[in-house]
Structure formats: structure tokens, C-alpha cells
What does this fold into?
Amino acid sequence: MNEFASVVLFVSLAQFFEEVTSELVYLQAVCRHGDRAPIEFHPNYQHIEKWNMGRGRLTEKGMDQCYLNGRMYRNHYQKLFSEPYNPNEMIIQSSHIDRTITSGQSFAAGFLGSGYLPEVSNTGKYVPYPVHSISDEVDYYLAGAGRICAQLISIFEDYTASQHYSLFVAENQEKIGHVCEKAGYPLKEWSLTSVCRLADTFTCDKAHGLSLPDWLDEDTWQTILNISQKARELRLTYPGVKTYQVGGGGFIHLLLENLRGFVNGTQNETVFNLYYAHDNTLLGFLTNLNYDDLRSNPVYTSCINIELHYTNDRFLVDVLYKNESESMTMHRLVPWGCPQNESCLLENFFISMEGLENPDPAAACRPTDIVIQLTFTASHLVVLSVSSCILLITLLTLAYACGLNRATNKLAPKKRGVHYAPLKFMSDL
It folds into this structure.
């Protein structure tokens, strides 16, 4: 065996040994909720009665999807969890919005199953699992940043006023007007926002086999999709958005803190932190990793998994994207500085992600007017100081001129009227 073959064999055996001895010790996942009703109904919408669960709420199909997702996670990661059931091993958190709370509950029912529920379940009673929701007033992580983060609101205002945005709208204005008119929107609502709402509503209709309006042929449907997808991509990639966006800097800090806590032994018995959130949450995270397909919306119950492995006295991280509703098919996401086809050393993962995290999103989102007020206050001090100096110099100049005038008047012969002497400025002194 030549030297090259020996090296290859050694490396292969080393990799095989590492794979065999590698142990998954901690898991984090952020998942999109299950199938839901449309968020908005346009004026000419004909299927309102079909969505009796209410706008934006989880459907029965969505509950089934999340239940299946829970079963798939239990089967895929079963070695991570204890048998019998240990209630301290899994923590589920969600946004404050109903569809994510019920998605987390449905996931838990599938994940635990009858074989993992406490003994009280033998009575035939349903045993609910707690889902902790984050209040809208402080949710910079999963859902609320677009409403409570003044910096993000300001950035979105800049975006809608930008030349890039205006040009995109102008290029598609005829198409926007056509579909908005057909949908029954008044002229003042012929906008990009209305087209995006239509894309959402018709996506829900198509998923449930509901009839579509006659004017919505395949070409028009593709127009609506293309406009809404491009608008999403432009918004997510606008400078500054990814720092404050849900799934962005604040959420990344939360994930990193969980990893630090587990490694430092402060996570207690928790081995699985699950977050049920929204498509924008996953897209916010993907944007920070420079994911190259932001036009494709994450499907229902898609998840991003952050796996922590332990092998040979070191920790390794895998970031995996499951953009599937009915399988655990995943592909690797590669943060900057991590290898393409291998797990990333924990210390390298921290280096790659720490520049993206926002440790205090509430402070970072401080209202813009406060920042401007502080800036103006400092400017006022500078202006006041300069003005004071000019005033002082002017008074001294006047005093000097008046003194010189008196001295001149004493020597000159007195005349009737007022004696005038020109004021000497700095350039004359």
C-alpha cells in the first residue's frame, strides 16, 4: 500500500470512528406553524364560510401536520430522550398568536404519544403539554418585531420610500392594478400589499381545493406569485432588516445563549428547545445565513434544527433545514467559516454567529425620535458654544471701539451731531 493510500485509509477510518462515537446531546428547532386559514379576505372573496375557525387560525389539516411533525421528531431523535417520559427534557415556546400555540400543542401530542404520557393518561384523559408563549409587547424574537421595534419600522419606511421599491412598483403597476380591481379592492388599495394578501388567500384556497375566480387563470396566478415573492426578497434583503427582523439578531442571541447554557451545565435536564413561529421567523434566520433562495416561502411545519453533538472531548454543531411537511428530509446550512460538508466546531460556530447576534433587542430597537433628540441636543450645545464665543468677541470688539472713540473725541474738536466710528471686525484687527 503506497503512502497516499495509507493516508486516505487513515482519514477514512478516523472519520468513521468519529461518526460512530459522535453523540447528539442537545437540540434546538424553530418551526413554522401548520396549515392555516387566510389572513385577509378581499372584497370579492366567496369562501368566507369555509373558514369557520377564523382568519389566520390553524385548520384541522394544520393540526394533523403538526401532530405528524411531532411523531417524526420523536422517531428521528428518539435516542436523545428518556423513556419513560421526562417532562423536563423538552420546552416548547411560541409566539403569542393562536396558530403557533395550537401548533405547539399538536406537536406535543404527536411527539409524546400514548407511550410517553404520564400514568394519569391510563385513565383515558387527555394530558395537555405546556406551550409557553412570548407576549407581543416583548417579542423581538418570533413574531412581534415588525410592530414594536421602532428601528425596524423606520427601516421599512425607508424601504417603501426607496428608489428601488418605487421602481419595482412602477414596473408592475399595471399588473397590480389589474388583479386588485378584479379582487374588488377600492382604488386607494391598489397596492403591493394587496397583491401579497391575494397570494396568501389563493394559496390557502388551492391547498383546500376551493374554487378560484374565473379571472384567476394560470398566467395571472403566476404574476401574483412572482410579484409577492420578489417583494418578500426585496424587503428581507434591504439594509438593516436582518438585524431587527424576527428570526434575526435577537433570536440568534437566544439560540447561542441556550448553547452556552447547555455547555456550561446551566440548562438542567433540558435537551430540546422547540420554538413554533412563522415563515418570517425562518426567513429572518435564513437571511442572516445568506441563504440563496428567499423567494421560496418555507412550507407549513418546515423547521430549522441546530444540533449539538459531542465527540472526542469536543462539541460539534450542525444546522439543518427541513423544508418538508411530511418527511424529515434535511439539508445542511453552512454559516460563514464552517466547513461545507462536515459538522462545525462549536467555537467556530460561535465565531461565525456572534457577529450576527443582538444581545439586547429592546435597547437596539429604541425609538428613533429619542436617538434624534439626543443628537440634536449635542448639536445645540455645539451651536450654543460657538454663538457664545462670537457674542463675547463682538462685545469685546464693541468695548474696544467705544474706548477708542472716547479717546479720539477727547482730542478732536467738538462738533454738533452724533460722532460715528465704523465697527472694527476681526479681519480689521
